[in-house]
Amino acid sequence: MSSLRSQPLQPLNSGQLNARANNITPVKSIRRPKENVQPTDQKQKKKKEKLSALCKTPPSIVRTRNGRDYRRGNFLGEGGFARCFQMKDASGQIYAAKTVAKASIKNEKTKTKLLSEIKIHKSLKHPNIVNFVDCFEDDVNVYILLEICPNQSLMELLKARKRVSEPEVRFFMVQIIGAIKYLHSRRVIHRDLKLGNIFFDPDMNLKIGDFGLASVLPSTDSRKYTICGTPNYIAPEVLGGKNTGHSFEVDIWAIGIMMYALLVGKPPFQAKDVNVIYERIKKTEYYFPEEKPISESARMLIKDLLSLNPLHRPTIDEILDYDWFKGPFPDKTREISLQETPQGLDKITTAQSSLNFKIAKDAAGIYTPGSKNPVEILRSDLHSEQPRAMLPQSLSPNDTRNKYQEVDPAHMGRPRKVNFNTNFSTAIKRLNQECFKTYQNMRRIEHAKYDEIECIPEYENPTLISKWVDYSNKYGFSYQLNNDDIGVLFNDENTLLKLHNSDRFLELIYHDNEGWTCIENSLSHPPAQAKRQLEIVDFFAKYMNSNLSKVSEIEESKETVFLRRYTRTPEYIMFEMTNGNFQFNFKDHHKICVSKEGEVITHISPSRVTETLPLILVYKNGNFISEAVPDCFGKIAVIKEAIKKKAFENA
User: The POLO box domain covers which part of the protein (predicted)?
Assistant: First the structure.
């Protein structure tokens, strides 16, 4: 995605991004048409129900509840209930925004379905699933912000190609199956898997999107009964409605439909009349055209995937054991595939194919054990805390990140309860000022000469985040400091710090009207509401102590430090601490911390050697003294720019 940064908003690949024009799945389930409705009436009815017309074009600048602004770009497409637009943030990063008109959400059932879609998609993290970024709303629309996939969908590929080669489809199937295995391990049924809902990311990897019809099973043996989906892809048991019910096997059926469509050129049950499609599905009435030959092993797999009895279909793990996957297997999908068949697919050796197959399965998570954390839809996720708002704050991940803004460490003393920042906007302003002052000092020191500095600051090794675990899809962000204090920045917008070698712990709580409150409590007699959070802190502590190494050691420190905000990018993760320090963990395992308002800098090497120096001395020497940092000034420039960005982010 880095290639998309700082570019003007413009159409990419004819504007088809994350959603095929006129093909965004509605959040409302699709019912069987009544037999006595004439074709003309059906068209009129369908036109009447197209609620995307209620979706007003978003303003040129969409302002969110958490202070982030997005600039609207080009219109990307529309469906029955939503429209899709480009959105660009302040850094130049481009996203796709699925936009739903509030006027189209006419009852509690439709609202619950939309919030369920957001909750499910937000909780998913897999390399072959479109990444959920954020959700927010204005007075007119609800916006679901998504990773942008600029290379269209499998539907566009098939339209351009007419048919796709078996080696390419093998690779597609592994990526799709990896994503579905992950979904099913979390008890999520997609229920609308189709070529138009599977997109190519910038690297031509497939990603499943559109969770408008997705549902969570309370248990693995429970069933769903709503008749929903896209006619050509609906499994026969779905058409049975309340008489049969359906489960995970509907997604297995959809794999068979997609595989047939890619290899033959159209879905197996396709017809002009939707009722004919349904009758063919009920009888599994399809054939393999002789003029479009495919291998016998492909036919065998398709036949099993399209078994009328759901229990006769292969499981996710069994699919990849079929002989068809032993054929030529490419190492990746190339952009040329969007227009024509790549050359040399028939020349891939058996040994190379076997290796490519193994690597593809590994990348798609086929070898990953099933998730022990199924998606849960809680009642609290479906009810807004604000009278006129549509979205609960709990459903927006960026809200959580930006609520942890400001704590004055000078007030972190012994009193049981201390209030901070009674005005949250003031807290934002103070945080911006602190970032700006650090940025100014770093910039001043960069251009100063060593003998011009009147006073070299005193310095010592700072308190750092030594270990961390991002489990924000369920609980929150956990971290262990190098003084062995352990904190968790919870998803409910509060944080808890368990002090090392102490029978006390601190709760940092944010209230809209009161600002930040720090409460000190006893571990032996914790309040009831904190017991579960303490269990989670202990869970993270046990995991980190067993599996992660400390970055450095420091002498025992009496300083109490919280993590107030973190930012993850492909190049680094940035931690902003309550003591004014900024820690950057770079992807090459070198870590740099800026303290004393930018005047002091610390380097922790991959071998955990720690060195703290005045920043001016690093500029004078050209690097750190004990151990050189690769691209030292390049990293410092990245740090300076990131802090500058934070200074103006909420201005």
Answer: 464-546
pLDDT tens-digit readout, 447-460: 877 666 556 667 78
Distance separating alpha carbons of residues 60 and 87, to the nearest angstrom: 9
DSSP string computed for 140-193? SEEEEEE---TT-BHHHHHHHHSS--HHHHHHHHHHHHHHHHHHHHTTEE----
Q: What is the mean pLDDT of residues 27-41?
A: 38
| Helix, strand and coil percent figures for the chain, each rounded to 5 | 35, 20, 45
Neighbours of 240 (CB within 10 A): 14
Question: Does 3.40.190.10 match the CATH number of domain 2-146?
Answer: no
The CA distance from 366 to 339, in Å, is 29
- List pLDDT tens digits, range 521-532: 888 888 776 788
Residue with tokens 């939707």: 274
* Contact between 592 and 603 (Cβ < 8 Å): yes
- In the CATH hierarchy, which fold is given to the domain comprising 397-649? Arylsulfatase, C-terminal domain (3.30.1120)
DSSP 50-89: -GGGG-PPPPSEEEPTTS-EEEEEEEEEE-SSEEEEEEE-
Joined tokens for residue 237? 């048991």
CA distance 471 to 490: 9
Best CA proximity match to 330, nearest among 343, 313, 316? 343
Q: What is the location of CATH 3.30.200.20 in the chain?
A: 2-146
pLDDT at 455: 62
- Residues in Cβ contact with 634 at an 8 Å cutoff, skipping those fewer than 6 apart: none
End-to-end Cα separation, the chain, in angstroms = 26
Portions of the chain given CATH number 1.10.510.10: 154-363
Q: Quick one: DSSP state of residue 596?
A: G
Contact call for residues 304 and 313 (beta carbons, < 8 A): yes
pLDDT tens, residue by residue, 586-614: 999 999 999 989 999 999 998 888 999 99
Per-residue pLDDT tens for 183-222? 999 999 999 999 999 999 999 999 999 998 999 988 777 7
CA distance 15 to 35: 38
102 is in an annotated binding site: yes
- pLDDT tens, residue by residue, 263-301: 999 999 999 999 999 999 999 999 999 999 999 999 999
- For the chain, where do the domains classified as CATH 3.30.1120.30 start and end? 397-649
Average pLDDT, the chain: 80
Question: What is the three-class DSSP state of 123?
Answer: coil
Q: What is the distance between the alpha carbons of residues 445 and 452, in angstroms, rounded to a whole number? A: 10
CA distances from 28 to 107, 130, 384, 443, 621 (A): 11, 21, 20, 54, 64
In terms of DSSP bridges, do strands 563-568 and 206-208 run parallel, antiparallel, or are they unpaired?
unpaired
Which CATH architecture group holds 154-363? Answer: Orthogonal Bundle (1.10)
User: What is the crossing angle of helices 632-649 and 424-446, to 10°?
Assistant: 150
Q: Would you name the residues annotated as active-site residues?
A: 192
C-alpha 135/C-alpha 395 separation (Å) is 7
